[in-house]
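Study this pair:
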Amino acid sequence: MHAEIRHDWALDAIEALFELPFNDLLFRAHCAHRAHFDPNAVQVSTLLSVKTGACPEDCAYCSQSARNDTSLERERLMPVEEVIEAARSARENGATRFCMGAAWRNPTDRNLEKVIEMIEGVKSLGMEACVTLGMLSRAQAERLAEHGLDYYNHNIDTSPEFYGEVISTRTFEDRLETLEHVRDAGINVCSGGILGMGESRRDRASFLRQLANLPRHPESVPINMLVQVPGTPLYGADRLEPLEFVRTVAVARILMPASHVRLSAGRHEMNDETQALCFFAGANSIFYGDRLLTTDNNEENADQRLFDKLGIHPLIPEGCGCGSRETAPAAASAKA
């Protein structure tokens, strides 16, 4: 029987999940995970920054903000041919989804056409395509949908209550509006947030509540651990305790049982044991490769060694021309 899909979570009920004994919480999350997914299959993506730096936003965690003195060099939008070659290499190294990020507040229509060329090139390789470009108008979302974009990433970052402590140049409602445009255009939504920015456990519960109570759960939910970058306002913040990160992954799995929950930024600072607990708690997607936009990630060989230790295999979407490996076995119950 599938874990129940709900969109009416109360904050107190989510906080109660966080307060469960650790073993009870992980058992409940793992059961929800098994109800919808093969527990030993992990979806693998690669992320490329196609336009780096000089973002006008003031996100306190971001190395790409023009307002933060991080010595990051500004780069123009990459040539389409270079992006496609990077996607081809990612496919050869096991990635089934190629994600492209551009440091914009919002893309111009002219820039959007260049990104569409990249999307078409990635799709021609038999891979799923994902982009994160900042805020989108309804017309822009529809344009991306017309050209076959599979996923659009737009994180809400944190709870609405804590949001103003991190960002002032874009409102929480702005983010929800872009998610609405993407969802209404028929594109899969990728939306999550960042832990370890000084937020409380109640903020973490409120952040997950915002996602879980959307009209449709995001198909992909990236859970990031803050990567502290010198020159950003959050550099030197108190680090989140690893087991609290695992708890948050487990609660995300319970609230959104049919979504892919992705271990994203900060994974290179986690040991194998923490990552293994996250996979048991319901994480079933990672970024593969040694860079996440402008910060470090686990290198490919380390990921493969961990997969081998845990008996995990990459998930190959049906119909994906990403390699000769067999599609991962279906879960005991079909996915919702």
Notes: The first helix runs from residue 11 to 18. The longest strand covers residues 41-51. Confidence is low (pLDDT under 50) at residues 290-297, 321-336.
